[in-house]
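Hi R.,

Here's the input for the pyridoxal-5'-phosphate complex you asked about:
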Amino acid sequence: MLNKTISAIKPSATLAISAKAKQMKRQGKDVVIFAAGEPDFDTPDNIKDAAVRAIEEGKTKYTPASGLPELKQAVCDKFKRDNDVDYIQENVIISNGGKHVLSNIARALLDPGDEVIVPQPIWLTYPVQVQIAGGRPIYLQLPDGFKLTADAVAEKVTEKTKYLILNTPCNPTGAVIDPSEIRKIAELALEKDFMIVADEVYEHFLYDGKKHLSAASISEEVREKILTVNAVSKSYSMTGWRIGYVAGPADIIKAMSNLQSQETSNPCSIAQHAAVEALTGPQDSIRKMVDAFRERRKIAIDGLNSISGIRCYNSEGAFYAWFNIQDVSKAKGSMDFAEKLLDQAGVAVIPGAPFGGEGWIRLSYASAKEDIEKGLERIRDWTES
Ligand SMILES: Cc1ncc(COP(=O)(O)O)c(C=O)c1O
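And here is the predicted structure with pyridoxal-5'-phosphate in place:
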């Protein structure tokens, strides 16, 4: 009965673990949850107020399917301010979160058999979306430093390559790709004629003096090869509002807009008005959040590294600690580790296997400091007992 492609889709492992942990909590169990990929901060008040105003002023009707003109303009201004890239409204579409943007891209660009280079470990949604759209994910397994290089990409490029996923800072590793490599990868895209989907949703979450480089800012010629994906979800702690956006060549954006007009129409009008405020209003909430995460990151990475059998990667971005558990004798692989840790120690983390990172675990430190300390103690007691 079911469509073959759709029936092969597995539910997202991250959402499944979070759901189980939350259910245990509802049943009264004392669980520390490091599973979700979202900041624990509340959405800033000025953004909430803008949404309330939108409701009160009756801005509750359909908007253009591809998003409000004022939000598209706010996105263009944001790209100029934060990323030094010039875009006009025709280069922008607003969708229901970054995930929807990425799905639209896959659907708009891929024909059956087209290839997409997917470096791993990486967010598990990308390859699934490629498959749903009829494309073929071509995996590029990154060695332990988890940094993508142009040489590694070059080895995977074929005549069928449609695009490369470039996610920096990266989910789940927190790796930040060196700007010099981003430049080389962009040159390769020009030479071999493939697109780059630059997912920059974690652009502000950087530590150890790292700086973000938007590939589209390299040159006007390169900009034509880039789809710059972003969302208000992580930067403004607005994961539930579902507003994402992408900027790129106008013909591709037009195709995505046509698709969106037939599939979902506009994203929520109220959330769009809130997103205008997020992008154009005061930006200091981002700095406060990143300052808090910097402190928690240190506690998480130092704490994990002090547990015997665990080796934590020095993530320079995002809000994930990525640690190796191959020397932990109590578990056989990352799935087993995550399941046992939740059942036996009441700590929810995400196994690396679905991200293409077997032997590794993702721990989101976007949680209260006390919870991080409590969770680390439990991981230590469980691992070392
Ligand atoms: C790398 C990456 N890109 C995009 C997204 C999508 O974010 P959203 O759909 O919540 O805007 C996520 C969410 O976890 C992510 O980790």
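One thing worth noting: The chain has 14 helices and 13 strands.

Cheers,
M.
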